[in-house]
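BACKBONE GEOMETRY TOKENS:
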Amino acid sequence: MHQHPAMKLSKRFRNALVEWYSQNKRDLPWRRTRSTYHIWLSEIMLQQTRVETVIPYYTRFLQRFPTIEALAKADLQEVLKMWEGLGYYSRVRNMHKAAKIITEEFSGRFPESFREILDLPGIGRYSAGAISSIALDQARPVLDGNVTRVLSRYFGIETDASTTAGKNEFWKLAEEIVPVENPGTYNQAIMELGALVCLPRNPNCRVCPLSTGCQAKRTDRQHELPVRKRRSASPHFNIGAGLVWKDDKLLITRRNEDGLLGGLWQFPGGKQEKGESILRCVQREIEEELGVKVLVRDHFMTVKHAYTHFRITLQIFNCQWSSGEPECKACTDYRWVDLEEIDDFPFPRANKRVVEKLLAAGG
């Protein structure tokens, strides 16, 4: 019978990892607590975001919302404002929803059953595994890019980790390896090794505690594993938007809750159509979104920004309101605001750069 490599895994693999971790782990604020809320927050913030970026957000967020109940009671706009600049805003919208569920259904105590954790909005298999192992000492596996890389290289696994079959194979392996004792420490150790040593490019095999048993090291294939299919180039869009002035007030609109950047505020505008000038695009988009006519004046700034699956070039123009009362045809709310109050509203990062330039220029 073919035996899975994990079955033959000696304790040495886990012990070497945990010992390395105890001596080399970074001192991070969420590692100084067993609070399920704090660990949940850190796991959600760390998705697709660097540790250095997360630390100040994590600290500020907990100062403002020290408990799950405090988060549940808070207005979504304030929660989004605390998240402003971290990106992937659906993460915090789901966290806000989950906090309400925990407050209403679990009396404000984070659930301990894996199934109940997994049922919360915004918590998938990875987050549930991380929270339940680190905060609740349950033997649940984690699998992120770091763990996949360590497992693929150590065991010489050539299955493409981005396919369904690949994901299943790696999850099965991660499940077989996770120890019953101190699963949270082990999970953090394997993730930390991937983050600090077993890097995507130029892994530092010289200091790796697993290098003696590593298949990729033995066959000099560190740069070929894990196998990944080539990503196609992400599409690019030109966006025209307007700083619509009426006397000293600026018009801002709030995006629909359920789409990309949902619930955030922005300057009205949209995608340039084929054969359309950027000035015409700004006029048309503002009219379609709000039913108002504007005179497009001078170019204010250009912002280039990359999202996960596409890139944009945002061109912002000063505009003069000329006629029509705004009505939300393609937004959920609008406001005429003074420059002094504009920074109270949560904006996506590309728009935030416009806000910063506006404030620096004093309008």
Remarks:
- The first strand starts at residue 236 and ends at 246.
- The domain at 5-218 is CATH 1.10.340.30 (Endonuclease III; domain 1).
